[in-house]
Specification:
Elements: H1 2-15, E1 18-21, E2 26-32, E3 36-38, E4 42-52, E5 56-58, E6 65-66, E7 70-75, E8 79-82, E9 88-98, E10 103-107, E11 111-116, E12 119-124, E13 128-133, H2 156-185, H3 200-214, H4 222-241, H5 250-259, H6 266-284, H7 291-308, H8 324-331
Parallel strand pairs: 3-13
Antiparallel strand pairs: 1-2, 2-4, 4-9, 5-11, 6-7, 7-9, 8-9, 10-13, 11-12
Helix pairs in contact: 3-4, 3-7, 4-6, 4-7, 5-6, 6-7
């Protein structure tokens, strides 16, 4: 206990050691900010020189390792501060030192070269010392990790292959299921869409009623009026006769009807020609028809649909009160 107290007193005396040269009133001082550290910690070694401004001084070249086990970690620039006394200044520099060996370590004196005109001199700091303590190790316990193992978060890049694999497997299973179902039904794998359940003339007449109710040409929407009437008739022809009228020109559609006389009579073909020709003039030649032409176009559309519609065959009604057996007797 007494020996440790002597060490502390000795460290306190050495931590602020100074050296003064009386000739030019130069004060050189070296100090450390602590007298004991743990192994691997850092100390601040501070050089302070007070001198006249006209006196040149050269700082010592401190190597990266000195006093065997003491290492220099970092060095600061030399700072200059003017003192209150005129003509004097203070120079400071900090060195950060460390040691990785436990025990007592000495910091040797450092010599500063002075030059006063042609006269050379030097000033030295006093030696310093500090104690390095090692880490206490509990030998009763085994080695342990510095940090516990923790799981890293899963990124999208990592799970993307699994997601794509699941989608691919699902697509394969769906195709197999669909193929088995198609095989049992014995129908084409990619069948054409079925035609509308309603007859073509019912759809066309409903569209013509809608156009009539809107009164487009009365609102000076002539082009829209003729476009909707002609599209309704073309759609009707496509659904009724399987003629691609929506993709054909008016001349091609009329040519088909003229080649196949069994599709419609001459009066119906004339009505169709009036509708399509007048619609082309309005849409492409910016023709302005008369009000009578507008009414006649809609009337011709109604007549064409009604004259060419497919007649539904209805079974004759059975006389009320008679069974099938009674009918057979009557026939016999």
């Amino acid at each position: 206990m007494k020996l440790r107290l002597i060490h502390i007193v000795f460290f306190v005396l050495l931590s602020g050691a100074t050296h003064t040269t009386s000739a030019q009133q130069v004060t050189v001082k070296a100090s450390i900010d602590s007298t004991h550290i743990l192994i691997g910690d850092q100390l601040k070694l501070l050089f302070e020189i007070e001198k006249p401004k006209d006196l040149d001084i050269q700082f010592p070249l401190v190597p990266d390792t000195f006093s065997s086990n003491v290492e220099v970690v970092n060095r600061s620039k030399i700072d200059t501060t003017e003192l209150d006394d005129k003509g004097r200044e203070k120079l400071t520099q900090s060195l950060f030192i460390t040691s990785f060996d436990s025990g007592m370590h000495q910091i040797p004196p450092f010599y500063f070269k002075l030059k006063d005109g042609t006269r050379l001199d030097s000033a030295a700091t006093r030696a310093l010392a500090f104690q390095v303590y090692g880490m206490k190790i509990d030998t009763t316990k085994g080695p342990a990790d510095i940090k516990t193992v923790y799981s890293a978060p899963v990124t999208l890049k990592e799970v993307t292959p699994y997601i794509l694999g699941i989608i691919l497997i699902a697509a394969i299973l769906f195709f197999i299921f669909y193929y088995i179902k198609w095989k049992k039904k014995n129908v084409p794998l990619f069948a054409k869409p079925e035609k509308p359940a309603e007859p073509a003339h019912i759809i066309a007449l409903r569209e013509l009623d809608r156009i009539k109710t809107q009164k487009l040409w009365q609102q000076e929407k002539i082009k829209q009026y003729y476009s909707e009437v002609s599209d309704t008739i073309r759609t009707y022809i496509q659904n009724r006769f399987d003629i691609p009228a929506m993709e054909q020109t008016s001349a091609e559609t009329l040519g088909t009807f003229k080649q196949k006389r069994d599709l419609a009579d001459s009066n119906s073909i004339d009505q169709l020609q009036h509708i399509l020709s007048l619609a082309d003039l309005v849409k492409f030649a910016k023709y302005t028809p008369l009000p009578d032409d507008n009414n006649l176009t809609l009337m011709n559309a109604y007549f064409f649909v009604n004259q060419t519609k497919k007649e539904e065959v209805t079974a004759p009604e059975k006389p009320a009160g008679k069974t099938e057996e009674e009918e057979e007797v009557v026939v016999q």
